Amino acid sequence: MNQYKWRDHPDGYAQAVINGKMISMHRLIMGNPKGKCIDHKNRLVNDNRRLNLRETTNSLNQANRVKAKGKSSIYKGVTRRSPTSFEVSIRKDDKYTYLGRFTDEIAAASCYNYHAKKLFGEFARVNDIEFLSKEQWESKKSEQDKFSKYKGVHWKKTTKVWRVRFHHNSKEMNFGYYTSEDAAANVYNYHAQRLKGDKAVLNDVPYMSLEECQKHTKRKVHTSKYIGVKLTSHKKWASQIYFNGKTHNLGSFENEEEAAKAYNQAIIENNLDRPLNKIIEENDKMTQLIKLEQPNCRPCSMVSEFLVNNGVTYTTYDVTEKPEKAAEYGVMSVPVTILLDDNGKELQRSIGCNYGELEEMISKL
Q: Which of its termini does the chain have fewer beta carbons within 10 Å around, N or C?
């Protein structure tokens, strides 16, 4: 080793230029194996004794690293969401897996330690904390996790369904309601990977395809096509609006359109920055076609070209900008074209680019 001129890397590794290439001392000692990482057992990167070095994978090498500074929690695998909410995840083979949410930071760190030892064995870099048994740290799970063991999945007691929610760019996105908890967790994983890529924290759940998940969709039932209007048990159309922290009842009406007009009037009178209902008068009612799509989707463009060439007027929703529409209609993949009646009730749908189905839908317009 003395024949080379060694210098310190900013990260603490000893490096030298050998045959025109920069190489670290610990890799040279171990024969510089291709596709392998060299791990320092005691985590001291300047201790390059052969007995302190071992070949490993990148995943196990990362498991032996200390927590990076400047994070929301001092403990590895723990993210502080609020003063009483600590989320735990673990990374293996470049995939993050969600382990739960806790009301206590030490309990969260204990959860990480438990799973790290199971996954990484002697390579596990665990948090230096007082030992808690599994029963002790599990007792500190948040109320949210007691309703679902999966990230982004929430139980709605009133409707007895599993709701999928995702926070992205300071916005909460709703990806629908499902009768199966596992299906909901798979839907969350799909959208997390789509929006976050390799940084997505995923649920450890038995895999289900989007088509399988769609079978468990609980579509939201709308009693009215208008905002702020619903059909009561007395067969009246109730109109209400929420502002200033209160729900304001605007009255009950025999006619759905009159209830929608009352909602519009309340928006105007209170100078609220909200969209108005577009009132459809009786003689204007007709079936309509809507298409759900996303950018850079060739089948989506093919459907659009077909509809335009047939002189069809339709409404388009970009599911990347309006994920709530995908959730409303139970759409898991695009394009999807849906035929609605004059009350907004679905009559027929076509998934993908199926010209035969599209022609049949057009004939009903």
A: N
